[in-house]
Amino acid sequence: MHKKIGYIQSTSKLEIEEQSELLISHGCSKIYVETSKELSFKLKRKLQEVIDSLSSGDALAVTRLSILCISVQSLLEVLFELNDKDVTLEVVQQQFISKDTHTLDELLLYLIEFIDDIKIEKQVYGISKAKANGVRLGRPPKLNQQQVLKAMELKHNQTSQNVASKFGVGRSTLLRHIAKQKKAS
Asked: What are the pLDDT digits (tens) for 102-153?
């Protein structure tokens, strides 16, 4: 008897639950969860474990192609490995089944969606890594804390526009910095 096994790779408990429910509703009898935060296909131990457990006629189910890997080359490696084992890949949300016949337009659409998903995942991964290392993201503030405190002091006797001009910023920028300072204290 052929089996359908699910594979999940996620960072949050909510994402794992959502993917699990979707895969179970599509007939998965067992689900492997990759807890590693590795982006590399070669370092995904659970994925290799899933592939090794599948036999001819079985199916591997994922919610999106980007769950498997982060590059077109590694996606092709996975597809070739599954094809060599005569295992079908089912991508539930994208409605892709590897054994089906697809037009070139359909394949290109799947590829474009895959690349877009990967860009987003890499961006989220980079942002979370930067935040974990204490790196400030975005443009630096126009005014430092000392300047904001001085501007608040000057604002008692002058208009916001005059104070903003003294610091070389716009009135709205000055007011935004003051509001942020008041909120922080």
From this structure: 889 999 999 999 999 888 878 887 888 888 888 878 888 889 999 999 999 9
How far apart (Å, rounded) are the C-alpha atoms in residues 62 and 159?
60
**DSSP character at residue 43:** G
> Is 33 within 8 Å of 16 (Cβ atoms)?
yes
CA distance 113 to 109: 6
Question: Can you give the pTM of this predicted structure?
Answer: 0.67
* Domain-wise residue ranges, the chain: 4-132, 145-184
Domain 4-132 has CATH 3.40.50.1390: yes
Q: For residues 171 and 163, give the distance between their C-alpha atoms in angstroms, rounded to a whole number.
A: 8
Residues 14-39: tens digit of each pLDDT: 788 889 999 999 999 999 998 766 55
